Each structure stands twice: as structure tokens, then as C-alpha cells.
Sequence to fold (158 residues):
Amino acid sequence: MKVKGSHRDSLSLRHAERGFTLLEILLVVAIIAILLAMAIPQVTGSKKSAWEVGAMQAVKSLGAAQHAYQSSYRQFTSFYHLQRLNYVDRGYSHGGGTDATRMAKHYSVWIELEPPIAGRTYGFSVFAVPDPGFGLKTFRLTENGVMQESTGGGYRVK
Fold:
């Protein structure tokens, strides 16, 4: 005779409830996959935005260095000259290099001087060009402080 609530009934009930069924596990895996599929584009977009902001900051920094130099010497100069005079950190590379030596991650940043007039340079542009394959914007800053961006076509004012 079985007595309701006996020791033997409670053991068999606990034993039967251990673990998860295959269906439960598949459901959890499917939910995690859906959440990851929604989150990955957000994370990727955030990284790209951060790299682009870093490039714009580097371009503005070089533009400010050029204007500081120009206020002292009444002309603009090269990236290397700005480094020699400590307007730009000496650890940065001009143009390419590794991300450790660049002013902005995944970007080459450099200065192009306008042709000199009577031996003096009166204009410049600072460029930030992304490495291929990242889908990032290109940035250009002119000596009058106008920031422009491009995604492959012409530049537009930012």
C-alpha cells in the first residue's frame, strides 16, 4: 500500500525533475542567438562612430596646431615641422603606420599645404583617410576651420 507523500514518492518526483529537456535548451539557445543578432550591429555601429569621432578630433587638433604655429610665424608648415617644434606629439606618425602610432585608430592623418606664395604658405588642409574595408568616412579640415566629410563621393560640410 502506498501512502501519499511517502519518502519513496518524493524521491522519484525529485529525480524526474532534474535537468532540462532538449526543447528547453534549444529555446534558450534560440533566444540568445536572436539577442546577439540584434546587439552585434549596435556594437559595430558604436565602434565605427567612436573611430570617426577620434578622426575628427585628430584633424581638429592638427588644425589647431597649424593655427598656433601660424600665429607665431605668420605661415603654415608641415606635419614633421610641427612635431619638431612640439606642436604635435612626436610619437605620432605622419600618414600611415600602426594604430599605436596614429593620431586616430584605423585612420591616416596628414597635412597638405597649399603651394607657397612668395616663399610663404598661406593655406592648408588636414585629411583623415580611413583604412580600406572599414566603411568609415573621410574627413577634411580647411585652414578656415570648415570640417568636411565624404563617404566616397565629394566632400560635404559637416
Q: What stands out?
A: The helical segments are 7-16, 22-73, 79-84. The mean pLDDT is 84. Strands lie at 107-113, 124-130, 138-142, 147-150, 156-157. Residues 145 and 155 are 14 Å apart (CA to CA).
